[in-house]
Amino acid sequence: MLCYTVYDIMKTVIEFLHDPNTGQQQVLDFIRQLKLEAEKEQDTGKLQLFAFIIRGLEFLELHGVTHAFKNYFQTHREDGRPYTIMLLKELRDHVPLLEFRVNWKGSGAFRAVFFEWEYEGMQVLCFTRAVIKQTTFDDDFERIANEAESVYADFTANPEKYIKIGVEEHE
Fold first, then answer.
1. Is 164 domain-assigned?
2. What's the confidence (pLDDT) of residue 166?
3. Could you tell me if residue 168 is inside a domain?
4. What is the pLDDT of the chain when averaged over all its residues?
5. Residue 9 predicted with pLDDT over 80
6. For the chain, how many structural domains are there in total?
7. Residue 128: is it exposed, middle or buried by C-beta count within 10 angstroms (0-12/13-18/19+)?
8. Stretch 41-68: mean pLDDT, rounded?
9. Model-level pTM?
10. How far is it, in rounded angstroms, from Cα 130 to Cα 24?
């Protein structure tokens, strides 16, 4: 009889945090708005950026943070050509925050700030804020990183303020 031992298998869940004051999910709302604008404007660049964001999130949820830090995300553009990027980056000036990154020429650099939280053996990736950057240094990105630091501090003290613990939501 063969016996296999599996190590470091942890389910990864992406959670778009609700703002406790407004009830809005800024990152999810931002992604949805990007898609709506792209469709309305028939902007193929924004549609491509949106597709990469969705595929990147699927990759991250399927493989988890550890794998995403060690391996390039590889997919294909709508024209069939390959697209490769490192999806994640540590925010060294905003520890323990992480940055989810997707770029597309002409449409900008999508950035979403998140942090990890372990709950009952699950790796929960708590997405707090998102922005599209047009330059390497961006004041809006610094603003959302600072906001995410505040959310992280409050979340660690009161996670139930941001997510429903132990309850699955179905749309």
1. no
2. 64
3. no
4. 90
5. no
6. 1
7. buried
8. 96
9. 0.88
10. 13
